[in-house]
C-alpha cells in the first residue's frame, strides 16, 4: 500500500492510499478521485494538463523521459520539482509523496 498527499487547485488536501499498480499512472488515479486534472491528451505527454509539483518525494522518482522533459519545458508554471502525472507510475517511488496539482497547459 502506498500513501500520497494531494493538494488540489482549490487549496483542499487529501491523503490517498493506493495499491501498487505500475500499469496505472498517477494521472489516472487523480482523475478517478475527481481532482482538477483534465488530462486532455489521455496520457500522451502532449497537453500539460496533468502537470503536478512534487512538494515531497521528487528525488525518489525515476528520471524523466525525453518527451516528458520536452513538454514540461513548454509549460508556463514549470517549477524545480515539476512532473507530468501521466508519466508517473503507481509504484513504490510514489510512497510518501506530496503533490500539488498545477494542471496548466501552454
Ligand atoms: S495527460 Fe496530457 S500530458 Fe499528461
In short:
14% of the residues lie in helices and 30% in strands. With 106 residues, it is of the alpha+beta class.
Characterise the protein shown here:
With 106 residues, the protein is α+β, with helices and mostly antiparallel strands. Helices cover 14% and strands 30% of the residues. The strands form 2 sheets. The chain has a 5-stranded mixed sheet. The structure holds FE2/S2 (inorganic) cluster.
Task: Write the topology of this structure.
Blueprint: E1 2-7, E2 13-18, E3 21-25, H1 26-32, E4 51-56, H2 66-73, E5 82-84, E6 89-90, E7 98-101
Parallel strand pairs: 1-7
Antiparallel strand pairs: 1-2, 3-6, 4-5, 4-7
This protein binds FE2/S2 (inorganic) cluster (FES).
Gyration radius (Cα, Å) is 12 Å
Named at the architecture level, the CATH assignment is Roll
Stretches where pLDDT is under 50 for at least 5 consecutive residues are none
* CATH topology name: Ubiquitin-like (UB roll)
Ligands, ions, cofactors: FE2/S2 (inorganic) cluster
Provide the descriptors you would attach to this structure in a database record.
alpha+beta; 2 helices; binds FE2/S2 (inorganic) cluster; 5-stranded mixed β-sheet; 7 strands; globular; 106 residues; 30% strand
